[in-house]
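A quick aside before the break. I want you to see a complete sequence-to-structure record at least once, exactly as it would be stored in a machine-readable document. Don't worry about memorizing anything.
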Amino acid sequence: MRNKIIAVNAVIVVLIGILAFALVRGTLVSASSNSAATAAAAKRDAQSASARLQLDGLRMERWLAGKAGEAATMEVLAKASPSARADAATALCDGVLAAAKQVAVFQGAVPSLVVLIDAQGKSIGRNGSNLGRGDDLATLYPGLKQALSAGTSGSDVWINAARNDQYLASYAPVRDEGGKLVGAIAAGFTLNDELSRVSEAVTGKGLKMVMLAGDAVNVVASSSQAAEELAQAIQGPAKGNVKNAISSGSAASAEVAGKIVVSASPIEGFGDGKRVAVVAAVPASFLEDISGMLLPLIGGATVLGLVMVIIAGWLLGNFITGPITTLEEGLLAILNGQTDKRFQLDHPDLGGLAYRIDQLLNQLMGIEEDTTDEEGRASKAPTAANFSDAMSVDKGGGDGTEGMDAAALQALASEPTEQYYARIYREYISAKRALGEAVDHITDAAFRQRIQGMEQDASSKYGKPVRYRVQTRGREVVLLAIPLG
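That is the input. The structure line, written in tokens, reads:
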């Protein structure tokens, strides 16, 4: 019994847990997997990152333009000796780098590279090192060459594995007092660091910077939050969209790639606007790992429900099987000859069954049932038969006129009928209550009907009208017939 109770309820709890998991998961998946919203979010992140990179480049361009106009910069370029000009350029670049650290608009970002360039696009000197002097940067980076030709500032991505260059570079022209272009000054942030700052400030998600190399798409920089899944998507499902974004110069539509949605946006202000793009990704679902999130919650609630089922089933099983075991053992004892065995079981559900079994045993064995309580009062409500027996007339012989004088007899005979019935009913009930007997079942109508029947029977016997009076004899209330006339 106990095990069946536990098993049935455990199955119900488990089924409810599985159903709840399926329904909640389906609802969350439907609500969180809005393809239009995720696509828009991915495209927005890519465009925002691209705009922030262009803004950072523009800020550096304007600041460098101020440095390019300083007399110290023009003095370096005016030196006649190449070696003196190179040493002075290195010192100037170190000073520019130190000044950049104090500029609030850079928000703590410090360039890794500051280099002074002549009018032909060759490096004169850079910060912290005498390496790279004389390198033809204009040939390596067409965007710089174009800016020198036009005499304008600009920004671009400098990638060169041989020189170990990986910079977001900005440059501004340097002119002499006559307005002639005599060179340029450039500064560059390491791409990975710059991309990480943009990611933290704008998207909060991983970013990749990519460039085209023929038909291939090369990842040239990654933010610290960029996952390997994004790199795989760039070389896989999203490759076509990334290439289209770079070649067209406009943001590409989002592409679903596994668990992420990828979008690319070209950095239009760098070079010709079709060289490099920033790639962003958002989860395909706003809620990541819905199953993993729900399992501890619904699974935990289900386990708690099973524990409660086991405890409740054990208690309920004991509540039911305990009395049944008692009845079984008692019946076995009776079958083995212990005929006086009775159950006297006090149980809210099975107590009535035990009582009926006791009654059945008493009847089968001819034992009169004791219906009184501890004080000798009836422990069960009187029946209609009890009522009839209690109202039986005195069988001791004679009539009830003994002890009554003529005046009392005359008063009884002349008493109005309704008043007589009401009085004798009150006297009868009072006498019964005085003996401690139950009288709730004796109604005035039933009493009157019974009395009238008894009067008719007695009138036939005596040949004259009869009325009754109440008398208590010991622990019995009797009705005495009084012949009238």
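Two observations worth writing down. The mean pLDDT is 83. The longest strand covers residues 165-175. We'll return to this after the break.
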